From TrEMBL:
Function as written in the Swiss-Prot or TrEMBL entry: May play the central regulatory role in sporulation. It may be an element of the effector pathway responsible for the activation of sporulation genes in response to nutritional stress. Spo0A may act in concert with spo0H (a sigma factor) to control the expression of some genes that are critical to the sporulation process.
Organismal lineage: Bacteria, Bacillati, Bacillota, Clostridia, Eubacteriales
Regions annotated as coiled coil: none
CDD domains noted in UniProt: trans_reg_C
Keyword Transcription: yes
A GO BP annotation: regulation of DNA-templated transcription
Residue ranges of domain Response regulatory in the record: 3-116
Source organism of the structure: Caproiciproducens galactitolivorans
One MF term in the entry's GO annotations: phosphorelay response regulator activity
This protein's name: Stage 0 sporulation protein A homolog
Residue ranges of every copy of the OmpR/PhoB-type domain listed in the record: 125-221
Modified residues (4-aspartylphosphate): 52
Length: 221
């Protein structure tokens, strides 16, 4: 089940939320280090954040803004502040929903479920785009401007994993696990061959230096 990070300074409310969500199968995490909350949340990498506005050190608006600068983790504001200005500001800062206290627990659960379904379980896009390169998932081709090239199964999976994690380094081990599920059956040189073939195919459509090698770490786009 998804992990929910609860940002709430009222210990009683936080524990009530934790018991409620765990009863319905969610994993809950939280922290009392409000001075470093955005960094802690990013490190924990939850699937959803429940965020109060009235907090010590930094308010929920600041935390929401800082999270949105680094991540698209869905955020539901749960607060006693019920003005339209508060709701509008929350949405403008990137919150996915806004619920006022006191709340009906079943409505809260329904909102959580709705946000998670919308973010994680909607139909995936058929085309991924990054830095001018398109990967057509249904046709197995890469495109740049008006040119396209057909990819092999392995080339397609390599480019797919890198584009889904764009601007993040993916290790050789992660790539091999994704391609063959178990790296023990794979010659390390085989991955290098596939990477080089993918690079050459991208060059055929005018894309150079798209796959970046991070020596000793892996690859990224």
């Amino acid at each position: 089940m998804p992990t929910v990070f609860i940002v709430e300074d009222d210990v009683k409310i936080r524990n009530e939320l934790k018991r409620l969500l765990e009863k319905y199968g969610y994993t809950c995490v939280s922290s009392d280090d409000f001075a470093h909350m955005p960094e802690i949340i990013i490190r924990e990498n939850p699937q959803l954040i429940l965020l109060d506005i009235n907090l010590p050190v930094y308010d929920g608006y600041h935390i929401c803004r800082e999270i949105r600068r680094q991540s698209e983790i869905p955020i539901i504001i749960v607060t006693s502040r019920d003005s339209e200005v508060d709701e509008l500001m929350s949405m403008n800062l990137g919150a996915d929903d806004f619920i006022t206290k006191p709340y009906n627990t079943q409505i809260l659960l329904a909102r959580i479920s709705s946000v998670l379904k919308r973010v994680y379980y909607s139909d995936p896009p058929s085309v991924l785009s990054h830095r001018g390169v398109e990967l057509d998932l249904s046709k197995g081709v890469a495109r740049c401007q008006n040119k396209e090239v057909e990819l092999s199964k392995n080339e397609h999976r390599i480019l797919l994993l890198l584009m889904r994690n764009k601007e993040h380094i993916i290790s050789r081990e992660e790539l091999m696990n994704d391609l063959w599920q178990s790296e023990e059956f794979v010659d390390d040189n085989t991955l290098t061959v596939n990477i080089n073939r993918l690079r050459r195919k991208l060059e055929e459509i005018g894309v150079h230096d798209y796959l970046i090698t991070k020596r000793g770490q892996g690859y990224m786009v």
